Amino acid sequence: MYLTQGLHRALQQNPDAPLTVFGDRIRTVGESADRVMRLAGAFRRLGIGAGDRIAILSLNSDRFHEYLLATWWIGAVVVPLNIRWAVPENRYALRQSGARVLLVDETFAPLAADLRDDLDTVVHCADGPAPPDMLAYEDLTGGDPVPDARCGGDRLAGIFYTGGTTGFPKGVMLSHANLLVSAMGSQAAVDFAIPGGRLLHASPMFHLADLAAWTAQTVVGGTHVIVPAFEPAAVLSAVETRRVTSTLLAPVMIRALVDHPGLAASELSSLRSIVYGASPIPEETLERAMAALPGTSFVQAYGMTELAPVATLLSAADHAAREHLRTCGRAAPHAEVRIVGPDGAEVPRGQVGEVAVRGANVMLGYWRDPEQTAAAVRDGWMHTGDGAFMDDDGYVHIVDRLKDMIISGGENVYSTEVENAVAAHPAVAACAVIGVPDAEWGERVHAVIVLRPGHTLTHEEIREHCKRTIAGYKAPRSTEFTDELPCLPTGKILKRELRERHWNGQPRSVR
């Protein structure tokens, strides 16, 4: 299969049905397909061919939807950039991927000058005229169409950048088959995407979780309702006015919805399913959401970008049993999941080890990084770095992260990267960064700092310092100052001791 196949099917069966809804703009399947074919033709005329990389830096929109399909239409590779990253991070991703074209919307157009050094072309995604040094998106959709190259299977479909433990993002290579297997396997288990239904994109479309939902809905056929970014009132309005049937939300978004004063007055009876994941969810938040939306089923997905992204699922039926709410579910139909020890052998049920996953959803590897690929994928098994145990019924209980990764508001943050930013401040002698519980964000980035003699520093100062080199969501949200850090004789900082002060035995849940 190939990722444009769903568009061909929809064009054959329902050409006049609405495919995208963005604000007041509604485009049918036929209109959208025509724009995709013409945008693909424009990419070809720019010299882009099979395997070339096309990047995008944009809020959610119907143009993001067209970009995905048009890139795959000519056999090229998508590189969605993180809208929350600082310029140096996205510049690195553009250079490392070798992207030749960058699409930017009006929000990010001002950053283009700092990103375009190694690019052939920058495209301005807006209704009006483009700046002098950019091409206008709407002009590109007015040229001649080209036929679909129908590239699929194990061909590279996208490079998706995720935080790196060495301070640099890693480019996860996913094929058409990776993405389709994960989406269709998940759909087989939880029936999330509804044929003829309406999927709301409120989570960022650059994120692989939302792309997985997009893929499933495109395969089964239906409408994509899109809002630029998550905002509780906008989500409630979209569900009510557009009769949305399903959506994917991070736990922090679910909390914002149940806390919103307009929830009770909103007509949300069309909403049949919410998939959540990407970060821990407090049981209190989940139970409040289930009570507030009694006609909506909830499904939890656990995985990672390298797994395209789903490994396990906690189904709607599982949510009826309270004892399962502390788990991340059981292996999805397309994935083989086991808990292994340091030797790679499976450990007994109930014993903590590392989550390892095998299946056709496992990434092709890290872009231009064979060493990291070999370390992560061994004998076909993706080693997640998550510590967990499996119970006798096959439910996976995440207990800790073997990697020093923090998940704040659904975004991965690697402590090493933040520590590098903190340590660059002249007042800092030593530091450690950990994730601590946070009712709003699931986890927040917390810095523990030892100051140099004679120096002073405030939390606000260290946060602003970090935001100059890393994204704002990675900068510490809380800071404590101490005389020394707990260390082994070798000098290795004992982060477990630091975490135990804050977590008080609570399990650190799924990513």
TrEMBL record:
<feature type="domain" description="AMP-dependent synthetase/ligase">
    <location>
        <begin position="8"/>
        <end position="367"/>
    </location>
</feature>
<dbReference type="Pfam" id="PF13193">
    <property type="entry name" value="AMP-binding_C"/>
</dbReference>
<dbReference type="InterPro" id="IPR042099">
    <property type="entry name" value="ANL_N_sf"/>
</dbReference>
<keyword id="KW-0436">Ligase</keyword>
<dbReference type="InterPro" id="IPR025110">
    <property type="entry name" value="AMP-bd_C"/>
</dbReference>
<dbReference type="Pfam" id="PF00501">
    <property type="entry name" value="AMP-binding"/>
</dbReference>
<dbReference type="InterPro" id="IPR050237">
    <property type="entry name" value="ATP-dep_AMP-bd_enzyme"/>
</dbReference>
<dbReference type="InterPro" id="IPR045851">
    <property type="entry name" value="AMP-bd_C_sf"/>
</dbReference>
<dbReference type="GO" id="GO:0004467">
    <property type="term" value="F:long-chain fatty acid-CoA ligase activity"/>
</dbReference>
<feature type="domain" description="AMP-binding enzyme C-terminal">
    <location>
        <begin position="417"/>
        <end position="492"/>
    </location>
</feature>
<dbReference type="InterPro" id="IPR020845">
    <property type="entry name" value="AMP-binding_CS"/>
</dbReference>
<dbReference type="InterPro" id="IPR000873">
    <property type="entry name" value="AMP-dep_synth/lig_dom"/>
</dbReference>
<protein>
    <submittedName>
        <fullName>Long-chain-fatty-acid--CoA ligase</fullName>
        <ecNumber>6.2.1.3</ecNumber>
    </submittedName>
</protein>
<comment type="similarity">
    <text>Belongs to the ATP-dependent AMP-binding enzyme family.</text>
</comment>
